[in-house]
Amino acid sequence: QVQLVESGGGLVQAGGSLRLSCAASGRIASSSAMGWFRQAPGKERDFVAGISGSGSITSYTDSVKGRFTISRDNVKRMQYLQMNSLKPEDTAVYYCAAGNSIGAIRTMAPGNNIGSWGQGTQVTVSS
Asked: What span, in angstroms and rounded, lies between the C-alpha atoms of 88 and 70?
């Protein structure tokens, strides 16, 4: 099994920054793609960013381009989401994800049994 544990969430003022971390353990290959989703109350869980197994390819949803950066450290089995210039609309629970490819991760949704999820970490951006 794959275990994914997020950390680094919290409360920040608009314009501020946070860095989320995700620690991977268990039966996860170093070649696994990884990424981040977020879910606000009453809304769908939406793709935020993805990164290929090697770290050479990244993908972002349009609303975070230029503000968020995804990265990974395969030796430490960690991935990160650096979030800058945060806006109130970024407020959500952020979930770490792992899958076979960035394309596969983009199709992940609660209950469709594609990939693996962490438990989530709350990010709240105040005005």
From this structure: 20
Neighbouring CB atoms inside 10 A of 47's CB total 20
* CB contact set of 48 (below 8 Å; sequence gap of 6+): 35, 36, 37, 38, 60, 61, 64, 68, 81, 94
The two tokens of residue 22 are 């995700």
CB 5 within 8 A of CB 21: no
Tokens coding 29: 């290959």
105 secondary structure, DSSP code: H
Question: Is the Cβ–Cβ distance between 29 and 45 less than 8 Å?
Answer: no
Which of 72, 74, 63 lies closest to 38 in space, CA to CA?
Answer: 63
Q: What is the pLDDT along the chain (127 residues), one digit of tens a residue?
A: 899 999 999 999 999 999 999 999 998 777 899 999 999 999 999 999 999 999 999 999 999 999 999 999 999 999 999 999 999 999 999 999 999 999 999 999 999 999 999 999 999 999 9
